[in-house]
Structures are given as C-alpha cells and as structure tokens.
Amino acid sequence: MASEYSTLAHALTEALVDMTWFIDGADDDQMDLDDAVKALEGVAAVLKHLSSDQRRDLLDVLGEMAEAEADPARREFLETFPQDFGLIDGS
C-alpha cells in the first residue's frame, strides 16, 4: 500500500494541522477552553525550538498543503498557521 504522503515531514505536518485545526475549532462542549489554549501554546512552544532548516521544511510543507486545500476555511487556517504558531514574525 502506497502512502499518500511524499515524506514523513508531510505526514507529521498533516497530523499536526489536523490536531490544531480540531482544537482551534472546538467548542466548549468538545473541549475545555483552558485545555485548548494550553495545547495550542504547547504546539507553539515546540515549533519555537525548530532549527532554521526544520522551520523552512515545515513552511514548505504548509505552503504545499495550503495550495492544495479546497476548503477555504482550512486553507486560511493553513495560510495563517506560520504566523499564529510563531514560525514567522507577524510584524
């Protein structure tokens, strides 16, 4: 069975985006707001410590995913992910 992902980085980025997309969109019945904030801050803390090469690789995969995304809301999430999670400077 062939993988739909070209690289491990792509597969893991897809999983990370799926998780953060769910947490970001969860309502109070699905997830406690404080827990959601802690989880998203935890993701940002990990991403903050990526090397410049790792950061560039992740940004490349996120860009490919955004270009291929048909759902406008999810595409916007993918496009803003780098700034929202501290991968690029928001200034």
Could you please describe the fold and organization of this structure?
By secondary structure, the protein is mainly alpha-helical. It is 70% helix and 0% strand. The chain is built from four helices and no strands. It has helices spanning 8-25, 33-48, 52-68, 72-84. Helix 1 (8-25) packs across helix 3 (52-68) and helix 3 runs antiparallel to helix 4. The longest helix has 18 residues, at 8-25. The relative contact order is 0.14.
Topology:
Layout: H1 8-25, H2 33-48, H3 52-68, H4 72-84
Helix pairs in contact: 1-3, 3-4
Average pLDDT, to the nearest integer? 91
Largest sheet: none
Q: Helical segment tally?
A: 4
Find the structural class using helix and strand composition. Answer: mainly alpha
Summarize the helix and strand pattern as letters. HHHH
Helix content: over 70%
Q: Could you tell me how far the N terminus lies from the C terminus, measured between alpha carbons in angstroms?
A: 44 Å
Uncertain residue segments? none
Cα gyration radius (Å): 14 Å
Shape: globular
Percent of sequence in beta strands:
under 5%
Total number of beta strands: 0
Short summary:
Helix content is 70%, strand content 0%. The protein has helices spanning 8-25, 33-48, 52-68, 72-84.
